[in-house]
Amino acid sequence: xxxxxxxxxxxxxxxxxxxxxxxxxxxxxxxxxxxxxxxxxxxxxxxxxxxxxxxxxxxxxxxxxxxxxxxxxxxxxxxxxxxxxxxxxxxxxxxxxxxxxxxxxxxxxxxxxxxxxxxxxxxxxxxxxxxxxxxxxxxxxxxxxxxxxxxxxxxxx
Length: 157
Hints:
By secondary structure, the chain is of the alpha+beta class. It has 6 helices and 3 strands, in the order βββαααααα.
């Protein structure tokens, strides 16, 4: 059953040195509308978009599982999974690692990796130059990799 992904679009722009945020949608009469919104609403709508993408991915995974043979399902069930203790340990380690970053690095790293904003969007939100965003994210990644290497985790880089 197909469904519409998004009923709105958001965008950010930098006008006269000040970030501005907009939401576009079609009203009940079928007329396209665009309104200026506060930064917090922009971030909340972006979070909704990410959540919906996660739900869509979950539905696709569910549909994929329905198409698997019994042998394929059994192989997936028997695959080794990390015990709960290891997953909790990893989550606590990630929190500690993030706490080792400066507030600016942590915010930019999370906006990029967790909230899915690109460098241009973050620069607009924070009203700063792109190189500053790239440097903060890169430095944060290096610090996190170093933290996890010192803790004995493999980084996959």
